Amino acid sequence: MSLPRIALLLLLPSLAAQAAEYRVGPGQTYATIGAVPWESLNPGDTVLIHARPTPYAEKWVLGRRGTATAPITVRGVKDAAGNLPVIVGENATTRSQLNYWGEERGILKIGGSNTPADTTPAYLVVENLHLRRARGAFTGRNGASTYAKNAAAIFIEKGEHITLRNCVLEDSGNGLFIANATSDVTVEGNSIHGNGNPDSILEHNAYTEALGITYQYNRFGPLCAGCLGNNLKDRSAGTVIRYNWIEGGNRQLDLVETSSDTLRGDASYARTFVHGNVLLEPAGAGNRQVVHFGGDNGTTATYRGTLYFFHNTVVSTRTDRTTLLRLSTNAQTAHVQGNVVLVTAAGNTLSLTDEAGTLRHGLNWYKPGYVSSFGTVTGSVVDTGGNVTGGDPGFVNLAGQDFRLTAGSALRGKVTAPLSGTEAHPVTWQYVKHTTSERRAQAAPAHIGAYGDPLAPGAEVPDAETPDAAPSGSGEEGGCDATGGGFAGPLALLLLAALAARRGRRAH
């Protein structure tokens, strides 16, 4: 037997003895979320919060460290009707043994506490929870308190190797807020909508700044009524936004500079990847720009550099003008390829860019009459060839928001080569309404837009980008709950057996 296998076999009994399972809800060991000893969770521990007819009005902090092979998992368990457990921030209370700062910033906070002792939380999975209404009053360590206007359903102050999966985040100042002491975050399969504050441009459905963040398979819906923020605002390094549905907001994407020297100094800050998304610009929405890229603080030397925008489906139902992309200065470059950009108004109501920066575009589909800019181009717009124009892209049902392709779609077989610089990001998946995905069959030439044909059962697929596992969509206890590295083959089977054994032990 090999030494790695012997080492793993020696390790497994220790892991099995240490991990615990905490069950919360009607008929479970713990009646409330606050009864769980959050301050003493260990690697491999799992907290299962069961749905119940009335919401949990509780809030807490995660400040412990799991490991790559034994993450700490907080998982909601659906009821018989398929409902997630609902956790409301308004009038919420906190477990008395927890002592953490920034209570006014979120319902679930990750990082930044006295009890548990302050550390960088790591290898955490939060899934299948419905968190809403970080607004109004709550009771914390200092008694009665009030949420800040920018409070979030989930607020991550710091942490590493964190997965947020299959959650609903709504009716808060920010749905998700991540500060820049955070790294390696995956946000997948969530529904994030109805956040923001009326008449304010400062709060968003998601507002994030991390070293390495991937958004995939999420549904971003409109913000709350009268709320002026963006849908997804990001200041990260190593940003990948793929296979999402993003509808509404002042802008669908606002991708601007970081305030962190650490993030700015990382090589991944130089390039941002946006692909396979559905971006919807509704009539009467705020800014006519769908995407803003670069920066917004005026210190142009800190702005982002290059955007790769490919195989997206962009639909605007505005009756006035639509601008696909605004680059902040002439130092920004956008490579735009393989996208379908449909305006339901006349073709001349679409401009590709605002004024500044370099936009290189080819192998896209537009209505005829589109323009480079509605103003004076101070940068440059370069047509790299192969763009297609027409009156109808050939969606299955435009009015019904079914943007899959008909058999005769004009988008089929038009992308003759991948976009240079995106080799590590093959478009191998596609979004499925809502918050899930399916494999995309690989065609040569490829189809324009976020949709190709689904992969036939049993067909082989090329190596996919990493990480690229689709969310389970499961509210059951057996859903996928690991993030980061692991073991392969027989070692994985041994590890899974140990995990199953230790989960059979309930905490009391």
Automatic annotation (TrEMBL):
<dbReference type="Pfam" id="PF13229">
    <property type="entry name" value="Beta_helix"/>
</dbReference>
<keyword id="KW-0732">Signal</keyword>
<dbReference type="InterPro" id="IPR039448">
    <property type="entry name" value="Beta_helix"/>
</dbReference>
<protein>
    <submittedName>
        <fullName>Polysaccharide-degrading enzyme</fullName>
    </submittedName>
</protein>
<dbReference type="InterPro" id="IPR006626">
    <property type="entry name" value="PbH1"/>
</dbReference>
<dbReference type="InterPro" id="IPR012334">
    <property type="entry name" value="Pectin_lyas_fold"/>
</dbReference>
<dbReference type="InterPro" id="IPR011050">
    <property type="entry name" value="Pectin_lyase_fold/virulence"/>
</dbReference>
<feature type="region of interest" description="Disordered">
    <location>
        <begin position="449"/>
        <end position="482"/>
    </location>
</feature>
<feature type="domain" description="Right handed beta helix">
    <location>
        <begin position="149"/>
        <end position="250"/>
    </location>
</feature>
<feature type="signal peptide">
    <location>
        <begin position="1"/>
        <end position="19"/>
    </location>
</feature>
<dbReference type="InterPro" id="IPR017756">
    <property type="entry name" value="TM_Gly-Cys-Arg_CS"/>
</dbReference>
